[in-house]
Amino acid sequence: QVQLVESGGGLVQAGGSLRRSCVASTRTDYAMGWFRQAPGKEREFVAAISWSGGRTYYADSVKGRFTISRDKNSVYLQMNSLKPEDTAVYYCAARFTTAQALGDSPRWYDYWGQGTQVTVSS
User: Percentage of the chain with pLDDT > 90?
Assistant: First the structure.
């Protein structure tokens, strides 16, 4: 069983930056992703990174503003130029795979972090 522990997040003004972190309790052979869910909306894909870190994938809404990276069993989401519409609970997720394919559906992932609120004020 893998546990994903998230940190970071909080409250920031529009145009500001935040960094999210997610640490997996065991293993490193998994792809990792970030999702977010705003009140009354479905969980949506934000970004993903392959197990090797060699491939990344972003939602159009965050491309050029957010950067996903990883270091062994940790994954990071650097969020710059934040907008009020980025306000949501952010979750990290993991899927055990050494393939380069990355998923943008919540169903593709096996494990989830606890989620942390990110609020961007206007």
Answer: 81
